[in-house]
Design the sequence.
């Protein structure tokens, strides 16, 4: 299973390659707006959703290349789908983390909410599985992982294969892969370092200026991006050198 040393190595490489992930931190400057929007989605915020979620995150950071003719419509559909959910449902998703999934705390009701929301977002013209996973992540950054084509292809041939890229398949991805990685990393960090904080706190404190903190879901995404999406470019940098793994411990 994934160790903290491997996650830390990936985070270090990612920080160098992305020059500190500047585009991501620019989006995170709007975190209060995003969180407020999720708690109370209203049509009056469509312009801000278009700017922050679609243009800055999906296009500039995520490289989704959504045309300017589609950004407003996609933003309005994101608002529409969130407004369909009850406030209690949104609060429930906001309270969950990928670590909770790994600990077996994803209830059947929450799994159904995730499946339904994923499928609803996929019904938006121009939003395939990759884009939808990125939308879910930016709205609920503690819980959701992003997956792209190479990651989904890898999952089809994994020990616990996931052949579907719909809501059911995405929930399986969270449970059997994302959650398990989160548990493995968290357990390894606690057992080998003796630290009381979380692995994402340590990495953010070491790689980036406080008080900026990335979620564990984001660091897991960076690991998957380097190990799978960029295979042939950076994946050969793994496994990390033993001296670095020992130092991380």
Sequence:
């Amino acid at each position: 299973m994934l160790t903290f040393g491997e996650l830390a190595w990936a985070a270090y490489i990612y920080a160098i390659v992305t020059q500190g992930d500047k585009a991501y931190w620019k989006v995170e400057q709007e975190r209060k707006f995003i969180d407020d929007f999720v708690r109370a989605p209203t049509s009056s915020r469509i312009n801000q959703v278009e700017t922050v979620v679609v243009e800055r995150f999906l296009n500039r950071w995520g490289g989704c290349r959504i045309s300017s003719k589609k950004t407003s419509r996609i933003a309005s559909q994101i608002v529409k789908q969130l407004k369909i959910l009850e406030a209690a449902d949104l609060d429930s998703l906001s309270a969950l983390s990928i670590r909770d999934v790994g600990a077996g705390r994803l209830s059947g009701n929450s799994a159904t909410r995730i499946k339904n929301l994923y499928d609803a977002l996929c019904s938006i013209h121009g939003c395939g599985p990759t884009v939808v996973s990125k939308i879910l992540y930016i709205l609920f950054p503690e819980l959701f992982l992003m997956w792209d084509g190479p990651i989904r292809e890898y999952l089809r041939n994994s020990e616990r294969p996931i052949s579907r890229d719909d809501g059911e398949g995405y929930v399986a991805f969270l449970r059997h892969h994302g959650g398990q990685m989160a548990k493995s990393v968290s357990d390894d960090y606690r057992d080998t370092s003796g630290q009381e904080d979380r692995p994402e706190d340590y990495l953010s404190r070491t790689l980036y200026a406080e008080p900026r903190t990335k979620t564990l879901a984001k660091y897991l995404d960076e690991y998957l991006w380097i190990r799978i999406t960029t295979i042939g470019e950076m994946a050969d940098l793994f496994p990390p050198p033993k001296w670095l793994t020992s130092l991380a411990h």
User: Anything to note?
Assistant: Residues 167-193 form the longest helix (27 residues). The chain is about 65% helix and 0% strand. The mean pLDDT is 92. The radius of gyration is 18 Å.
